[in-house]
Amino acid sequence: MNNSRFIHARKMLAGSMLIMGACGIAYEYTLGALGNNLMGSSHEQIFVVIGLMMFAMGIGATLQKNIAGNLITKFLLLEIILGVTGGVSALVIYFSYIFSSSYMLLLWGFSLGIGLLIGLEIPLLIRINREYSESLKTNLSDILSMDYVGSLIGALLFTYVLLTWLAVDQIAALLGCINLLIAIIGLMYFRPLVSHFKKLSVLGCASLTVLICLLVFSDNWRISLEQRTYRDPIIHSQTSKYQHIVLTKKNNRLSLYINGHLQFNSQDEEIYHEMLVHVPFSVASSQEKVLILGGGDGLALREVLKYRAVDEVHLVDIDPAITELASSHPDLIKLNQGALMDSRVSLLAPGGVSPSEEYTVTRKTKLNRLLLSEQTYSNSSVHLFNVDADRFIQESSDLYDLVIIDFSDPNSIGSAKLYSRDFYKNLAHRLKPNALIAVQSTSPYHSKEMFLCIGKTLRASGYRALPYHQNVPSFGEWGWHLAWEGGPEKAEMQNKLASIQSIPITTQYVTPQVVSTSMIFGKDWLNDDHIAINTKFQPTILRYYRNSWKN
Question: String of b and e for 253-277 (b: at least 16 CB within 10 Å)?
Answer without folding.
Answer: ebbbbbbbeebbbbebbbbbbbbbb
